[in-house]
Structures
1.
Amino acid sequence: MASSLSKEQQAYMLAHEDDSLVINIIVCCSVCGFASIIILLLRLYSQRLVSGKLHLTQSDILLIIAWVPYVAFISCFASSTRYGGGRHILFVSDLRMVQILNIADEHTYAYAMAFVKLSILRLYGGIFASRQFNYCLWVVAAIMIAWAISCGFTAVFQCRPISHTWDPRVEEDFCINYGISLLVSGVINIATDFTILAIPIPMILGLQISRQKKWLLIFTFAMGGSACIISIIRLAFTIKVGSTTDESWDDIPAGLLSIVELMFGFLAASIPTYRPLYRRIVHGSVTPSPIPNTPPHRLDNGLGKEAINKASRSCESDPELIGDLSTEHLSEDNFLGTRMTDQIELV
């Protein structure tokens, strides 16, 4: 790779021999890795506050699965510093290992991102019982699965012969424009970010609750917008990936943003489940306090009782999805099409 550098590039790197992003990589991997553990533990603790014991929901399991490739991602990214990652390519000690770890990064990032979004979609599916809404969730889930597989496939088969991808000593016959491929996958990633962010809003606006509660609930789900912003910033840096001769240096900002993006993805997937924890900290009790001078709810007769029974049966496999009906007067129609959770106070 050094042989492909111009004399000007080599002179620049020699003049900046002390340039290093190694500390940035280690700090980012350590902080975000630790933060992801705290986010997951708080989610599980909040779950335990509800039932008195730890019972994992499908959304929890998907997020835990996402955490496994995330840890692999930050481990590979941090390990690349041992071989010269975070320094100019002229000072890389083992370019083959850096390339192999880069390919592993692409795989693990894609799988972690896909499972984070699948966890969010499953959380939505556990709240809103509309058949049409759940069809939309399945479509987005299928797109994310296909996206993750295609990202991994492209990372491995970007060159012919394939071995050139991880061993620059092998002479290439043909390579795709990997930077364009990453740009396209980044755009799809951002599109699904905004889709997942917007998809529950019509369902929330259709609930028969106060406007203030609607906006609070929308704000809770919209916390995932922070990950969308990072995805957009990351896309700008991704353009350099695959089209630079100094990849051990130029690829680092996109990698760091990928780590932060996933960490915020874990947070976005978990914030809606922190309601019991919030009550314990603020009110000293997991049970919501009844609002004074509020008429009793009317879900004990007619369609209301039937809706509760139907929702209860549908949630037998997911104890998280139970009624939290003591905070506001409801009509029978409020409950229809919505599975109430004690993590997310919809009413």
2.
Amino acid sequence: MKISKQARRSAKQLFKSCLRDGQLDDQNVRRAVQALLESKPRGYLAVLTHFRRLIKLEVQRRTALVETVVELKPAQAQRIRNSLEKLYGPGLRFVFTQRPELIGGVRVQVGSDVYDGTVRARLDVLKAAFASHE
């Protein structure tokens, strides 16, 4: 579905109204969606579609996915939290997962930013280098 400029503008205004101190407020989001669904203005489905996309992007931007081979010790996890909060500001939500296929190291994704210090990533680079010389 193609979303009109007016719908995008309305969704962006709705999104901005849901921010409190620069952070997305769940209660404001619920109220905004409820009000939009009750009033059903012209093009409200397009507004909701774009609003949902903006919310999804904001949640991804404020979520740090930290992947390691083994579970991190509390001190290690705290160092990673501190470093990422310095870089991205307070209010990040952290998700720590274990992925044995990484072989070693840490992979961190915050929004579209990816920091990959895993052995698997290094091996993939070497594999690509050897493949290009064949």
